[in-house]
Structure to design on (543 residues):
């Protein structure tokens, strides 16, 4: 059963250079107690989707479409209701831990904030809860960690603090926006292991946004590939890594170290001027005249979806 | 060739009683031209510090750095300027290594003005170098924040190539980039090494990337360098 359904979501930003079409009619489903990984290059609109779910986008954003969370359309909700959902029902882990944490508040106060806001807990109670959460996140001395400040922790520890904050009220949906960016390989393994364990313990669903294919492969059930604001392929993770359908997905897997670093030629297109036809055609080795003129629709093949004329 | 001879370096930290923290302890290594030395290690082990010592940005204490047999800290001013031109460093954060207030063309002109290239030749040289790094000339009129991470990293590389270097210290050049862009930059770096005979000190914490790029590999741990592959 889908917990979150995104229907034809469109997000545009008005800028001095023109209208940036960051997300173009994206439809997605996050199934209850499953992990959906959203992968793609930087700037393809992954984080914009995450922020539009929680309605955290700036004022110059125009959002169209539907985001249904347990039959509630999040885009139409009152701001007060939305505030009661943020952190309690849907929680987000932001990509830069050192910027996402407040440098002047202690860790204990920050991890305990959801308890004070949503459950009217006292300061002491919230700190007790943060000690419990930090112990769950495998901090060696949670009692002294709550008194420390973000600058005293490494990037990996701050990331674990953010995960603990997001898990505080056992949210039904957890959104992790590049949780492993800028971390060492050893730390990445540790973080994804803890993220997956937390999701299972609290029976939450996870929307994992990443550009690291190895992270997506390790913990996701379904994978959706984004390119220039569109979903170009969606498939069960195991099938995707066995045989990617879309030429862009094939290119992504080809650039992995184990496949010999074969880069995709060219650059991703600007989101201001939309290309006619398929967005990937200037970089695609299979591009035909049809790709340059017509826009491919998402086609269903078995349990997968792909946006390419090769499978028409 | 760049040779680091018994190089040590440390930072003092703590207040009110300062403690001395040794990052590099008696390290000797030879970095060859036309070859890549891969340097691995966890965060905070001193990989970047070793890179900065090799380009002369920080002075080891004690220890010596030789460039083509000459101690770089004993060079005369013209020799020192020549050395700084020939040994360059490419940093991890592509956005942070370019001036956000300057257009890309101005960033490139700066380099050419510094080495006194005449205005008549500048346009042709810039077009050539952009062609080498695989960017179109319309990028010249943009600002760093209007380019992607991979494009900014190519511009930083173009700035370095304008100086016709012999050796480049690459400090995690792809760790902030996407996997597909990472492959593009690595392939470009290898191609440049083949065509221009450049030497690299390639710093990374990703073993797969280091293995792909390097002829010899060393691991930095607790201030000491252990060579695990000789090339």
């Amino acid at each position: 059963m889908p917990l979150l359904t995104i229907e034809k979501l469109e997000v545009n930003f008005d800028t001095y250079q023109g209208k940036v079409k960051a997300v173009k009619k994206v439809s997605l489903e996050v199934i209850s107690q499953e992990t959906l990984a959203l992968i793609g290059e930087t700037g393809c609109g992954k984080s914009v989707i995450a922020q539009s779910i929680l309605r955290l986008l700036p004022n110059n954003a125009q959002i169209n479409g539907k985001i249904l969370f347990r039959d509630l359309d999040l885009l139409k909700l009152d701001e007060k209701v939305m505030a009661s959902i943020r952190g309690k029902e849907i929680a987000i882990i932001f990509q830069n831990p050192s910027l996402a944490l407040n440098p002047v508040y202690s860790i204990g106060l920050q991890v305990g904030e959801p308890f004070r806001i949503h459950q009217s807990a006292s300061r002491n109670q919230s700190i007790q809860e943060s000690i419990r959460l930090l112990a769950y996140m495998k901090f060696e001395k949670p009692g002294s960690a709550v008194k420390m400040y973000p600058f005293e922790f490494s990037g990996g520890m701050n990331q674990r603090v953010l995960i603990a904050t997001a898990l505080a009220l056992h949210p039904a949906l957890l959104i992790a926006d590049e949780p492993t960016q800028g971390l060492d390989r050893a730390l990445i393994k540790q973080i994804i292991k803890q993220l997956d364990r937390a999701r299972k313990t609290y029976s939450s669903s996870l929307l994992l946004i990443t550009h690291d294919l190895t992270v997506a492969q390790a913990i996701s059930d379904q994978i959706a590939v984004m390119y220039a604001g569109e979903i170009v392929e969606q498939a069960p993770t195991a099938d995707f890594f066995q045989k990617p359908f879309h030429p862009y997905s094939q290119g992504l897997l080809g650039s992995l170290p184990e496949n010999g670093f074969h880069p995709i030629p060219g650059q991703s297109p600007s989101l201001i001027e939309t290309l006619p036809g398929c967005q990937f055609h200037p970089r695609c080795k299979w591009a035909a005249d049809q790709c340059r003129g017509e826009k491919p629709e998402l086609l269903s093949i078995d349990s997968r979806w792909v946006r390419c004329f090769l499978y028409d | 060739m760049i040779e680091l001879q018994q190089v040590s370096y440390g930072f003092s930290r703590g207040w009110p009683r300062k403690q001395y923290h040794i990052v590099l302890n008696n390290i000797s290594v030879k970095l060859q031209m036309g070859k890549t030395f891969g340097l691995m290690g966890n965060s905070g082990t001193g990989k970047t510090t070793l890179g900065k010592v090799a380009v002369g940005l920080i002075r080891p204490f004690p220890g010596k750095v030789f460039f083509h047999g000459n101690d770089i800290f004993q060079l005369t001013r013209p020799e020192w300027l020549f050395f700084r031109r020939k040994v360059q460093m490419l940093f991890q954060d592509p956005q942070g290594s370019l001036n956000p207030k300057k257009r890309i063309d101005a960033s490139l002109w700066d380099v050419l003005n510094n080495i006194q290239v005449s205005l008549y030749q500048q346009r042709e040289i810039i077009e050539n170098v952009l062609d080498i790094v695989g960017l179109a000339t319309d990028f010249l009129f943009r600002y760093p924040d209007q380019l992607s991470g991979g494009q900014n990293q190519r511009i930083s590389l173009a700035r370095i190539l304008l100086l016709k270097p012999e050796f480049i210290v690459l400090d995690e050049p792809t760790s902030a980039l996407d996997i597909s862009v990472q492959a593009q930059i690595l392939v470009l770096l290898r191609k440049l090494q083949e065509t221009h005979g450049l030497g690299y000190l390639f710093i990374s914490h990703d073993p797969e990337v280091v293995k792909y790029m390097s002829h010899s590999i060393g691991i930095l741990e607790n201030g000491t360098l252990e060579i695990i592959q000789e090339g």
